[in-house]
Design goal:
This protein has 10 helices and no strands. By secondary structure, the chain is mainly alpha-helical. The longest helix is centred in the first third of the chain and has 27 residues, at 31-57.
């Protein structure tokens, strides 16, 4: 469970779409406030999804090859296959020029509620679902698994936490450097999406298949 959550959490935090949107929010007129609303909503979504899964199991991992265990592995396998197919599809298709989303022109007038909603929309739900399916194996009677789940949620939010802290402590430097990072992300967005989708997808597919037949 630990290795799976580390890989999934890392892939989530490195996603270019939400990081680019977050940098735009930080660059806006009320950037710190909007960034905080986005960050808290993002983290709350991760915690809520993980908590629902853990509550369904009662904090006890299902027995190996039981119906809940098999269902969880099947979900992870399905997500893995979808990610592989998605990554392969985006890799094969020719790059298409596209401008920034229309909502970026209204970012200065966005409210914290809008920023919070944007976090929900931009969360990579396939990866979040894979993390939730992995959390089925959590045993909440042990401190280690509590720390693992907490670490996963923080890891999946790490890029946002770092950028929000940077913007709060050194706003002038942060604005210049984060906008340079956003430009880099825009130039390499396709490669990042394809790479993350294929790495996580292949891992989940291989790992789930092995556990289903072992």
């Amino acid at each position: 469970m630990v290795l799976d959550l580390v890989l999934i959490g890392t892939a989530i935090t490195l996603g270019p779409l939400h990081n680019s949107a977050f940098i735009l929010l930080l660059s806006s007129r009320r950037g710190i406030r909007q960034g905080l609303a986005f960050l808290l909503s993002w983290l709350a979504n991760l915690i809520a999804v993980t908590a629902v899964v853990v509550l369904l199991t009662g904090g006890q991992p299902p027995a190996r090859h039981s119906a809940p265990s098999t269902a969880g592995l099947a979900v992870k396998l399905a997500i893995g296959l979808v990610l592989v197919l998605y990554g392969a599809h985006r890799h094969r298709r020719p790059p298409r020029p596209h401008g920034p989303p229309r909502w970026t022109t209204r970012i200065d007038n966005a409210s914290p509620v809008t920023a919070a909603g944007l976090a929900w929309v931009l969360q990579p739900w396939a990866l979040v679902g894979a993390g939730a399916a992995t959390a089925l194996d959590a045993d909440l009677s042990t401190v280690t698994d509590w720390l693992t789940l907490t670490g996963y949620c923080l890891l999946a939010s790490l890029s946002l936490i770092v950028m929000e802290t940077y913007a709060l402590r050194a706003p002038a430097d942060a604005n210049a450097r984060l906008n340079a990072l956003r430009n880099w992300l825009a130039q390499h967005q396709e490669q990042l999406i394809v790479t993350l989708a294929l790495i996580v997808g292949l891992w989940l597919t291989a790992r789930s298949t092995y556990e289903l037949i072992a």
